[in-house]
């Protein structure tokens, strides 16, 4: 097995946090014999290895320690405890124009930065045209960096980083400020470097980029390792946690909102019959109290007609507070397969929070297509949360079953798609081969 080019062993990094500026002076005056600060641990007990040619992605929320970790790889910061080993020339794009002197021109900064990375002036001069061409900042190359926009600074910084023949490239979210055109060029260049065997440490909030270029991923949470493994596994676990956190935030937000004191709310029209219950489950904080399939006049229908409008009406009652109610249904075919379905969140309709005792009625207006004649069931549900993270309060399998009447035309497959047919072009029938040959051998007429 090859030796790792980057190795972390029980690495931790802390920063002293002082309550006031004078506290720092007091600590200095006491020659650090008395502590007036508390330690903030940016990263804690980090252990991992990165191998040559690997693209290693780091994900996590802001403040989780991602940038601190990359800065320790670059040698900008040193760990408070633990050991770090880095083997190879490192080029880093950690912050906008990091390492650039704002008073120097872009040209001067290219030579200074490349020299810091170990290139001779002759080597830098040989690569300068490539660096300038990739950055595409025009005449600004000879202007002071302090006159650059953030996008121009990152263009030049990235161009320098990729053209100094790095063995290890560090990229820390800086590409997020660039325009789409330059960002795509950068990602193509990153893929080129991967093919050349360059080791890449990549920090980004884009789950798509992590999955597309990463070999492995590390999820940092509050400075600690949460997950380490394949990009697919780590990113999916990270996104699931973020969706759950967002749902919890929305719940807290709704709970804190001031609500006018009132008695239980009851919808003007309530359905209180459930024709059938094959199976029922949920935490019972809210329940389905009725479901009906109606025509546009509000009358119950007993047969589904192709190409007609129907209303699926569902009534629910809360026994506890439901902060983010979602009401929906699944339509199943005669084989029990989920044929179609929807819910209030999917349709962008946000229901208000429910208090204990509230009764809501939700109407779903549907236009039926031409379906094959069979039986279809409707399974209603009420949940609390968001589409990404929710808790089922009540679900009833096959609460109402209706037959679909035959369509006027033949149904091939499960349904007939709306279709318009037109004759695009009509070609004339070609002349027989014998006639063409006869014409070719005919003697020309002399006028």
Give a verbal description of the structure.
- The protein has helices at residues 21-29, 66-74, 106-116, 121-135, 150-163, 180-195, 207-213, 231-256, 433-441, and strands at residues 4-17, 38-51, 55-59, 81-86, 90-93, 168-172, 199-203, 216-221, 224-230, 279-281, 286-294, 303-304, 309-318, 325-332, 338-343, 359-367, 370-371, 375-385, 390-397, 400-404, 415-416.
- The model has no long low-confidence stretch (mean pLDDT 83).
- The strands form five sheets. Strands 10, 12, 14, 15, 18, 19 and 20 form a seven-stranded mixed β-sheet that branches. A six-stranded mixed β-sheet has the order 5-6-7-3-8-9, with helices on both faces.
- The longest helix has 26 residues, at 231-256.
- The chain has nine helices and 21 strands.
- The N and C termini lie far apart (93 Å).
- By secondary structure, it is α+β, with helices and mostly antiparallel strands.
- It is extended.
- The protein folds into two domains: 4-244, Rossmann fold (3-Layer(aba) Sandwich); 279-407, abc- transporter (atp binding component) like domain (Coagulation Factor XIII, Chain A, domain 1, Distorted Sandwich), CATH 2.70.50.60.
- Helix content is 26%, strand content 32%.
């Amino acid at each position: 097995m090859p030796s790792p080019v980057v190795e972390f062993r029980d690495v931790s990094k802390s920063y002293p946090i002082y309550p006031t500026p004078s506290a720092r002076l007091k600590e200095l005056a006491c020659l650090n014999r008395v502590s007036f600060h508390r330690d903030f641990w940016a990263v804690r007990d980090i252990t991992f290895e990165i191998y040559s040619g690997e693209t290693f992605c780091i994900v996590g929320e802001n403040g989780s320690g991602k940038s601190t970790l990359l800065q320790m790889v670059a040698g900008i910061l040193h760990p408070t405890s633990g050991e770090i080993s880095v083997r190879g020339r490192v080029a880093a794009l950690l912050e906008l124009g990091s390492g650039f002197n704002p008073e120097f021109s872009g040209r001067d900064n290219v030579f200074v930065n490349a020299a810091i990375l170990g290139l001779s002036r002759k080597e830098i001069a040989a690569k300068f045209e490539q660096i300038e061409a990739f950055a595409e900042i025009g005449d600004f190359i000879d202007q002071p960096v302090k006159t650059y926009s953030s996008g121009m600074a990152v263009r030049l910084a990235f161009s320098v980083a990729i053209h100094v023949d790095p063995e290890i490239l560090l990229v820390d979210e800086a590409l997020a400020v660039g325009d789409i055109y330059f960002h795509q060029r950068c990602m193509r260049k990153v893929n080129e470097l991967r093919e050349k065997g360059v080791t890449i440490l990549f920090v980004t909030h884009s789950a798509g980029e992590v999955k597309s270029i990463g070999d492995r991923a590390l999820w940092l949470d509050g400075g600690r390792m949460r997950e380490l493994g394949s990009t697919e596994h780590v990113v999916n676990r990270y996104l699931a946690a973020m969706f759950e956190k967002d749902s919890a935030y929305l719940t807290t937000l709704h709970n804190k909102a001031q609500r006018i004191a009132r008695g239980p709310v009851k919808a003007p029209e309530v359905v209180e019959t459930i024709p059938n219950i094959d199976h029922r489950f949920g935490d019972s904080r809210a329940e389905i109290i009725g479901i009906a399939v109606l025509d546009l006049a509000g009358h119950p229908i007993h047969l589904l007609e192709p190409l007609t409008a129907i209303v699926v009406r569902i009534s629910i009652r809360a026994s506890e507070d439901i902060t983010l109610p979602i009401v929906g249904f699944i339509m199943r075919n005669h084989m029990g397969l989920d044929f179609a379905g929807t819910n209030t969140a999917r349709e962008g309709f946000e229901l208000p929070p429910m208090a204990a005792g509230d009764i809501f009625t939700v109407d779903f207006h549907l236009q039926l297509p031409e379906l094959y004649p069979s039986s279809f069931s409707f399974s209603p549900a009420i949940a609390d949360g968001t589409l990404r993270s929710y808790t089922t309060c009540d679900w009833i399998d096959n609460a109402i079953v209706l037959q679909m009447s035959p369509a006027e035309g033949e149904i091939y497959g499960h349904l007939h798609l709306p279709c318009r047919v037109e004759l695009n072009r009509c070609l004339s029938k070609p002349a027989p081969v014998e006639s063409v040959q006869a014409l070719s051998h005919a003697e020309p007429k002399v006028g």
